[in-house]
Design a protein that fits this description.
Oligomer: single chain
CATH superfamily of the largest domain: Ribonuclease Z/Hydroxyacylglutathione hydrolase-like
Structural class: alpha/beta
Shape: globular
CATH topology of the largest domain: Metallo-beta-lactamase, Chain A
Bound molecules: zinc ion
Strand order of the largest sheet: 1-2-3-4-5-6-7
């Protein structure tokens, strides 16, 4: 059921607490009606589609657990962050962003079309940092918060003291940064930037939807997961390891999960980002196909 959180702003809670592949959506009914990240609850979204003209779908980024039910609103314009727009206009580009090759790429091409109703759709408005979207009485200011994806954005309703955090979701799992253009350092910067804003109502995309006031503590806990992952990885690499051995250690996902290929690929995609970062800082080296811890960063 939609929950009114401000005048004309409704939270549509995602099924299964908004856990992947669902997320929490926002419906904003002003002179223009917009839906942010419509992957919450297909039945509620169908009701909205039946009773309302939705002028635009606004996506925080290109992931399927955010665009999923956009297809219920074929007349709506699509507004997305500029760097993420090409992946919504071309499925091959999305699969490139996911770094999927060979058989996996073809399996996912099918999943994205059949299960997530991916339709290459022209992006009518490409959002950039500081853009002010006027909906009539209400304004949304675009906060470009890259890291999760290159274009990932949060959406600020300045007059309502409300921020849609999208996938800076403050979950216990921690940040996700497995795509071609994902970046750990940008993630840290973006999370810190949001945590520096005070006195807001925050809407995260997954699990706990609403946070009130300040999110400094939650943000700190969220970012500490990155350090835990990196510390574990460095400890593991005291002995040289191949990428296969590192993936098998399940530093990111901890325990075996189903579907196996999906989570193993997720583990690989996240771990490669840590390896890149540690190679760059000189904390690890790569020798004859194996990764090895070299030194701690001096303080
Ligand atoms: Zn995402």
């Amino acid at each position: 059921m939609p929950e009114k959180i401000r005048e004309q702003i409704y939270l549509l809670p995602g099924l299964n607490r908004g856990k992947y592949p669902y997320c929490h959506s926002l419906l904003v009914e002003d002179e223009l009606t917009v839906l942010i990240d419509p992957a919450s609850d297909p039945e509620e979204l169908k009701k909205i589609a039946a009773r309302k003209k939705v002028d635009a779908i606004i996506l925080s980024h290109y992931h399927e657990d955010h665009f999923w039910f956009s297809y219920l609103f074929p007349q709506a314009e699509l507004w997305t962050p500029e760097p993420d727009a090409p992946a919504l206009e071309s499925l091959d580009r999305l699969l490139d962003e996911y770094r999927m090759q060979g058989e996996r790429r073809e399996i996912w091409r099918k999943i994205l079309i059949e299960q997530y109703h991916y339709q290459a759709r022209p992006v009518s408005r490409r959002l950039k940092e500081g853009d002010r979207i006027s909906l009539g009485k209400m304004n949304i200011v675009v906060l470009h918060t890259p890291g999760h994806t290159p274009g990932h954005c949060c959406f600020h309703f300045p007059d309502q003291g409300l921020i849609y955090l999208a996938d800076i979701d403050l979950s216990r799992f921690g940040p996700w940064y497995g795509d071609r253009g994902s970046d750990i350092d940008q993630t840290i910067k973006s999370v810190k930037r949001m945590a520096g804003l005070i006195d807001q109502t925050w809407i995260a995309s997954h699990e706990q939807a609403v946070f009130e006031g300040n999110i400094e503590k939650e943000a700190q806990q969220y970012l500490s997961v990155i350090k835990q992952r990196e510390d574990q990885l460095c400890a593991l690499l005291k002995e040289p390891k191949t990428i296969e051995e590192i993936v098998a250690a399940r530093i990111i996902y901890k325990k075996p999960r189903e579907p196996k290929d999906f989570y193993e690929f997720g583990e690989w995609s996240m771990i490669t980002k840590h390896l890149e970062r540690l190679l760059k800082s000189g904390q690890i080296v790569r020798e004859s196909g194996k990764y090895l811890f070299a030194r701690s960063l001096s303080a």
